[in-house]
Automatic annotation (TrEMBL), chains A, B:
PANTHER family per the UniProt record, alphabetical: ASPARTATE-GLUTAMATE RACEMASE FAMILY, GLUTAMATE RACEMASE
Top-level taxon of origin: Bacteria
Top EC class of this enzyme: isomerase
Isomerase in keyword set: yes
Keywords: Isomerase
SUPFAM superfamilies to which the protein is assigned, alphabetical: Aspartate/glutamate racemase (SSF53681)
EC number: 5.1.1.13
Protein's name according to its UniProt entry: Aspartate racemase
GO molecular function, one term: aspartate racemase activity
Organism from which the protein derives: Rhodoferax saidenbachensis
Amino acid sequence: MATVDFMEKLVRLTPATRDQDHIPLLVASLPHTHDRSSAILGRGRDPLPQLLQGIDLLNHAGVGVIAIPCNSSHHWFAQLRERSQAPLLHIAEASVAAVPRSHATRVAIFATRGALLSGFYQRSLQEQGLDYFLPDPDGAQNEVDVCIREVKAGRFNVAGSSLERACVAAAAAGATALIMGCTEIPIASRHADTAGLTLIDSSLELARASVGYALERGWNRPGWDS
Amino acid sequence: MATVDFMEKLVRLTPATRDQDHIPLLVASLPHTHDRSSAILGRGRDPLPQLLQGIDLLNHAGVGVIAIPCNSSHHWFAQLRERSQAPLLHIAEASVAAVPRSHATRVAIFATRGALLSGFYQRSLQEQGLDYFLPDPDGAQNEVDVCIREVKAGRFNVAGSSLERACVAAAAAGATALIMGCTEIPIASRHADTAGLTLIDSSLELARASVGYALERGWNRPGWDS
């Protein structure tokens, strides 16, 4: 559903009045890819060969740019980028660029435990001089885990309730903004009161970067095949 | 957006509690394909070469079955099926199979003018001994045209209003059921009162046929790449 959500964002962000104004897309939804978070935590099979197969498939089909609407997969970003002829957009760079800049900003990062261990959000925020907050692994992170799992199972209301409790904990710890750094979380956020936090939707920011990249190059104009 | 809607239906129809329970998908969204309806009406460029390119792309990537969530493209179904190594599911066959069987059933067909001229829905209903109704080309069909066009432009409320007027006309003419035979129409139907007609959503029925095909073959079980 996170892939569907990402595609919908691409379509909505594209200025279009007819089919032919939209951007050509090739979407490889490969759900049998081994769990990325478990692998980063050293508890599951390595998904990198499957991720590379996806990159190869898209390259063979001749795509011009690749966006991966799965945060945890960005643990292997360097290897994927090296393999691909088409450039790759980075979901964390796109998301951190959307954080409001202020000395008072404290950014909570909600993501899988694997993505947090990988640390690419923390590094990206530090490079921008932004303060961040991670949920307590024995507390609010459990709520984030449930939120992600329940979206994958299609139980959006249960997911929203868990997200709500995690947001309350983040706000209590002084967070003013929240990077929803797992593409399942924005789906749950429609079913949650997010405690007044400024929300940064990693899926939306990646979609924005993707559409911007395509429009700059005129890929929404007919003639791609002629 | 019709492609996004179709993908969402595939995901919702798949019994899944985690990523790995879902069905691998390759989605080629090629919006620059010449307008199918215009071409059937003899007023536009032939989209068949582009449709064949799409079939080739999917076959080269090794897909096991192909569904095309665009009704008008089914005008070229025989040529597309002949080109493809993977079998193709037919959207009209899937839709007509979902029509309630009763001697009192009269089925309105809402589709593009091109799809209606092509006649594949009429033939499929006739083969099943079902009575059908087509909107007046100078009346309700204009509302259907507007409905489809406005969904493509992202104006869902306007599209819903047009659909509503077309439904009232169909019900007044004795229709009891409606095949929404263009994959934009179901998106508009969420913004419309459809005059008590039994709705058959061609996109949903194609998604149901696709998921059924995949589940019978176990494509939702891990191991696709090993």
